[in-house]
């Protein structure tokens, strides 16, 4: 009888334990945005690899110095419904209001849709780096959607760590890294950059995120799930000083 009671109690405990685990599993996605965390990690790797490139294949340090915001789209992939183009999700962060720090600035998630992106033959995916260089570029980010070439100009960036950059070629500078490691400026004219409100809300534990201006320029929270990207941008900027 004792053994039977013990088995019954253990079974009940096991059911409760499993139920507890199930409940914990159900709430994990909202408190730990795994997709966005993976995106931030991959975006950080793109910047880390750029810092390891030989000087002739580096972004000019003068442009990094001037950058007010930095965006990385780690997997910019050809898609059938965008004629001749591609689409990818990325993360953007801007310097803190005092202009002194990247590590404590609140990031936002965006979707980049290209209209005529050039890929190497046989390549289906690449990474894109965007540098926002002046007040015009920063103000453009306060809009939910930006049309490159219409509302604001974007230019393929020059290469060479010591390149003499006399003034910014455009408010926004773009670079592309192929899966083979080829690095070059890329023309994003005709592409669209859209604020991803749903994904951005996810990384802030579903707090209301009404617009990109609030996230990028008024909040002072860096979610732990994407902090790796902030640190990578901070390191990226430090290398130019």
Description:
The protein contains seven helices and nine strands, in the order αααββββαβββββααα. It is of the alpha+beta class. The protein folds into two domains: 1-31; 33-238, no CATH class. Strands 1, 2, 3, 4, 5, 6, 7, 8 and 9 form a nine-stranded mixed beta sheet that branches. The radius of gyration is 22 Å and the shape is globular. The chain starts with a helix and ends with a helix.
Please describe the structure with a list of short key phrases separated by commas or semicolons.
single chain; 241 residues; alpha+beta; 9-stranded mixed beta sheet; 7 helices; globular; disordered N terminus
- Please tally the β strands and state the result: 9
Main sheet attributes: strand count, strand direction, barrel closure: 9 strands, mixed
Q: Average pLDDT, to the nearest integer?
A: 79
**Span between N and C termini?**
77 Å
Total DSSP helices: 7
Q: Tell me the helix content.
A: 25-40%
Shape: globular
Specify Rg, calculated over alpha carbons: 22 Å
Strand content: 15-25%
Uncertain parts: 1-32
Please indicate the count of domains. 2
Question: What is the string of helix and strand elements?
Answer: HHHEEEEHEEEEEHHH
What structural class do the secondary elements suggest? alpha+beta
């Amino acid at each position: 009888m004792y053994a039977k009671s013990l088995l019954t109690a253990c079974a009940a405990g096991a059911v409760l334990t499993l139920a507890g685990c199930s409940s914990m599993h159900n709430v994990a996605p909202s408190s730990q945005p795994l997709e966005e965390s993976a995106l931030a990690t991959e975006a950080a790797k793109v910047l880390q690899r750029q810092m390891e490139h030989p000087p002739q294949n580096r972004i000019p340090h003068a442009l990094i110095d001037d950058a007010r915001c930095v965006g990385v789209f780690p997997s910019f992939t050809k898609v059938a419904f965008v004629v001749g183009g591609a689409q990818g999700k990325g993360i953007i962060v801007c310097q803190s209001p005092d202009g002194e720090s990247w590590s404590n600035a609140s990031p936002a998630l965006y979707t980049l849709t290209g209209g005529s992106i050039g890929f190497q033959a046989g390549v289906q995916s690449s990474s894109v780096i965007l540098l926002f260089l002046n007040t015009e570029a920063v103000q453009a980010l306060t809009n939910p959607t930006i049309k490159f070439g219409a509302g604001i100009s974007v230019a393929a960036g020059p290469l060479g760590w010591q390149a003499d950059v006399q003034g910014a070629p455009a408010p926004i500078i773009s670079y592309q890294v192929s899966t083979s490691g080829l690095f070059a400026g890329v023309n994003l004219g005709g592409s669209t950059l859209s604020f991803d409100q749903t994904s951005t809300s996810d990384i802030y534990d579903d707090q209301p995120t009404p617009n990109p201006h609030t996230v990028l320029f008024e909040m002072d929270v860096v979610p732990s799930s994407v902090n790796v990207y902030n640190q990578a941008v901070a390191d990226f900027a430090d290398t130019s000083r």
